[in-house]
Predict the structure.
Amino acid sequence: MMLETRGLKKTYILGETTVHALDGVDVDIAEGEMAAITGPSGSGKSTLMHILGCLDTPDEGTYILAGEDVSRLSGDQLASIRNRRIGFVFQSFNLLPRLSALENVELPLLYGGRKDARGAAENALATVGLGDRMGHLPAQLSGGQRQRVAIARAIVTDPAILLADEPTGNLDSVTGREILALLGRLNSQGRTVILVTHDPSVAASCSRQIRIRDGRVAEGD
Amino acid sequence: MLVWTTVKAAMRSLFANKLRSFLAMLGIIIGVGAVISMLALGAGARKQILGRVTSMGTNLLIVRPGSNPMGGVRSGSMETLRLEDAQAILRKVEGVWQLSPLAMGRAQVTYTNQNTNTTVMGAAGTYFSIRSFEIEKGRPFTSVEEERSGRVAVLGSSVAELLFGKQDPLGEKIRVKTVNFKVIGVLKSKGDQGWFNPDDMVLTPHSTAMALVFGQIHLNEIDVQAREGADLKEVETGIEEVLRARHRLRPGEENDFFVRNQAEILEMASSFSRTFTILLGGIASISLLVGGIGIMNIMLVTVTERTREIGVRKAIGARNKDILRQFLIESLLISGMGGIFGIGLGIAAALAIGAFSEFQTVVSLGSVALALLVSASVGVFFGLYPARRAARMNPIEALRYE
Ligand SMILES: Nc1ncnc2c1ncn2[C@@H]1O[C@H](COP(=O)(O)OP(=O)(O)O)[C@@H](O)[C@H]1O
Ligand SMILES: [Mg+2]
């Protein structure tokens, strides 16, 4: 298995109310899968993505990533795993506005201490079809182009897993389909891709669907 | 992560907010400017004071009646020194080249309808060379005038100016208290020396001053000049021995006079100017502290504004220390650039003070290095808290921040 979780729990306490964002999640995702996580708003999809992406740790349960238990690691250890093994794509792109496309894509390599950052970043931008926009600032790019830069940034360290939380949520449907096609192509090159989506047609294009309801898996495949 | 990349990024974020960065720097600019100019002022004052002490005359020993006032400059008012003491010192003490007995006090000096209250200094003719006075015009007193209590006077430059204006004082009669004196000379100006203004006095032979002006038989001071190359400490001991014998002091009994040599006066003056410098520098450093607080304030705002950026950086693999370093470098840049501008400002201020006021200023390389070091430390010290706050942010909360 690429990743497996057992009994993941995450609880938020807001004043008097307790929210069980995750209430015992077991999922196994194999290498090379393209999985869609779906479910109503507030069901815990993003919370699960954060834990799978090593941005957060569960209150209870275990998470094994590529054979390594990462459910109780320190902040800096998680940072290193995010840098090497995981690529993130966000709904709102999250590019750094003052850096050019190329510099945004270089960033993970710089944090990883890699030497050939420039060349690798250029390759990643070429892969997503933006070889001719490297010097542009995010503000000078369209929404679809920004998301491509974000995808280039996610794959530049050559991670095994690509996580995308509603990657088409801020895009029109045509551009959304292009981004989805790009993610599909990256998956066909061997990367494990997990994406969160509301859109049934997006979910349908994935090889597997994981439905979440009230912090639990209501699997339907 | 490469430091240079971080520095470039920090520069970019400073330039993206030029006005704000400048305002953040302003406190440091003013603080460093103040420190540099105040230290320059202190060093200048020190140089000036030392110069004046040296211009008092060289190899000088001053004998005064009374007991040594700790650290003070003026003596008590005991009447233990006599003319015979001065003569005995000149005759018996090894290493003494020349001396001048002094009887002095304040007195009213009048010329026609002009009058002034000034120091009347009864001295020997040797006084002029002992204290390095130069005669502007006229002449000093002769030994005959000294022995015969001649009623002649040499005027300090400001007294001459006050009483005579543009008129030539030579040969004119002035009145000191009720006694008439003939003006035979005017001194070249030495400038005010802080505790004593040598331009504001009237010199007469000591015998005249004692008998006719003050009606006293004691001396207020004996100025002794040692021979070139003589050991001032040994001369001092010699004077003490002679005077103790003359005053019939028993072993163990305290001196009823005290001797101070120029080296001690120099030491006193330089310790005074050191204190002065530390005081000025200390006051100026308070503005550096305020500058540091300004930097901290701006950095806290910056960190809050860039919460989302911090989340993104963490999501793609930045460790806490990477974030810490990024913001520390930014605050270091603010304070460092502020320091450099401040040094420019401080040097300009010091030059202006030197050019447009009576104070001297000396900008030392050491004070510039100190200012750079201090401003860098201020950047690190006051940047540390905001940077740690950034570094410790939870990545998810940072990403969710609107
Ligand atoms: N940091 C948080 N603090 C408090 N409650 C949270 C936090 N994160 C998520 N939640 C709550 O947990 C539940 C699941 O949220 P989330 O995972 O974002 O849902 P989804 O992405 O499926 O819309 C929601 O009720 C949400 O309000
Ligand atoms: Mg969500």
About this structure: Chain A has seven helices and eleven strands. The longest strand of chain A covers residues 3-14. Chain A touches chain B through 26 residues (CB under 8 Å).
